Amino acid sequence: MYELLKKDGLAKRGRLHTVHGVIETPVFMNVGTAAAIKGAVSTTDLQEIKTQVELSNTYHLHVRPGDEVIKKLGGLHKFMVWDKPILTDSGGFQVFSLAGLRRIKEEGVYFNSHIDGRKIFMGPEESMQIQSNLASTIAMAFDECPSSIAEKDYIEKSVDRTTRWLIRCKKEMERLNSLPDTINQEQMLFGINQGGIYEDIRIRHAKEIADLHLDGYAIGGLAVGESHEDMYRILDAVVPHLPQNAPTYLMGVGTPANILEAVDRGVDFFDCVYPSRNGRHGHVYTRHGKLNLYNARYELDERPIEEGCRCPACRTYSRAYIRHLLKAKEMLGMRLCVLHNLYFYNSMMEEIRQAIEEGRYQEYKKEKLDGLMSGRE
Fold it and tell me: Do 299 and 177 fall within a single domain?
């Protein structure tokens, strides 16, 4: 159940009640594709850096170690020793981005594994069955994620197929949640809005899926090469047509600035690999923008990554030491940068929630964006 606690303009302060605990929104979900955050980050670390939701991927876990293996081991929560909510992506995006040769048919998609080349079939029912085996808190519907530069005629047909697949996902999840051997019989389902950069297709699709009364609604197929202006234009058009009494999730987004802008347009769930990927390359976020710790200027810098930050890296270590670790290719350097970046994102979401509660989101957003652009170190 989703509670809308406060609105400040279009910005929403909400609370999603799940079988694995309450999610305070707006929220950033920390991406652990294969049931782990890249960068040697443990679930104990996730607790310490204020993580509310961990996100894993259906396709990757189906290929390795296998969703049936995870079910035999008690589900994903038990497998990775995490007691808070988990969202599993449906695998749709990976099927369309990783699989190379594939055949899309009404029943689903035939493709080859990117790991060992074996033939795999995945459709709406298979995606729901895999996610039920994983026993995640929130399952994503299986959709087609067409290229943002595809012809409008193709996108229209693709969106219609995604709607038909969503109806099948909902029916299959209801069946799975009723079975006695299902680990999580209260698994939630989020549908996905598609339509490329065409406002008319997006709005029509939003209205169609809103009628299905789902647990949440995602906006997919953005942050895949279109401009920020196009992304914000689509959000301006689509979000008003999605239910206010359910979470709105912008998939795969993004930078701190992207999140601030999307919250202002009514989005309250986010995920992105940026903080962990950038951290693994020595790029760290601060309230004054991003730093590259490989830079020679930090060789003798005894300050933490960010003054006043309470993350595990900043409480103890200097920029100079972390730079040395990165240069020496010591895994600890990468790990500390990832922990800092995820803490930065999770803390920013706390600030966003507080600003909405206090009715000062516009002021907060301007102040935050000005700081991020300042480039001060």
Answer: no
- Residues making up the annotated binding site for substrate are 89-93, 143, 194, 221
Confidence of residue 119 (pLDDT cuts 50, 70, 90): confident
The alpha helices in 99-151, defined as continuous H runs, are 124-134
User: Which range, of 97-111, 178-192, 245-259, averages the lowest pLDDT?
Assistant: 97-111
Same domain? For 32 and 112 the reply is yes
Binding residues for Zn(2+): 309, 311, 314, 340
* 218 & 322 share domain: no
The H or E element containing residue 339 is helix 331-357
Which residues lie below 8 Å from residue 75, measured CB to CB, with a gap of 6+? Answer: 133, 134, 135, 183, 184
Of 245, 272, 299, the position where a domain reaches its end is 272
Question: Would you name the residues annotated as active-site residues?
Answer: 89, 271
**Domain of residue 283, residue span:** 279-374
- The two most distant CA atoms of the chain are separated, in Å, by 61
Question: Which among 214, 242, 272 is the end of a domain?
Answer: 272
pLDDT at residue 174, as a whole number: 98
Shared-domain flag, residues 244 and 289: no
In the chain, what percentage of residues exceed pLDDT 70?
Answer: 99
- How far CA 189 is from CA of 132, 212, 215, 342, in Å, comes to 11, 11, 6, 26
Which pLDDT value is given to residue 99?
A: 53
- pTM summary value: 0.97
Confidence of residue 100 (pLDDT cuts 50, 70, 90): low
Give the integer Cα–Cα distance in Å for 341 and 337: 6
Quick one: which of 228, 260, 290 has its CA closest to 368? 260
Q: Are 71 and 176 within one domain?
A: yes
